[in-house]
């Protein structure tokens, strides 16, 4: 491959990453915009995902990512900004990023919430310099008309994820491998 074609290849592959920041409040009025989106996402989740309000009440804290944009063409990435709430009050702001490689093409947007079910899990998240969602993360799933599956096992899991409001052309959304960093909006 010549140097010219390598540059064209890298430009074509990284173009979807440029889309990742679209619509996520970049260069926006900061915390007010994030807070407004977080409040809308929480209200939407409570109305569309039965059982999520109970999960929030039982948790030590909730990280709400109201809008995550993901795009990929071979290489892909995702980006979003949100807020950590404890007892319904915003205590910190976070960004989430992830990268992926493989057979993929398309773009999607979705929302997700991480519920910290133990004080220790919340403390570990807040004290980390860059927390990464691992494979041990429990997903609470909602059927279209059914309630959230929050059985005893789910409620004893340190961190529970709920992904909702998905729209786009990439099938499935997960937060596994996503990195979360505290930000100052």
From TrEMBL:
The keyword Signal applies. Residues 98-180 form the Ysc84 actin-binding domain. InterPro entries: Ysc84_actin-binding. Transmembrane segments: none annotated. Keywords: Signal. Residues 1-20 form the signal peptide. It comes from the Bacteria. This is Ysc84 actin-binding domain-containing protein. It comes from Jannaschia aquimarina.
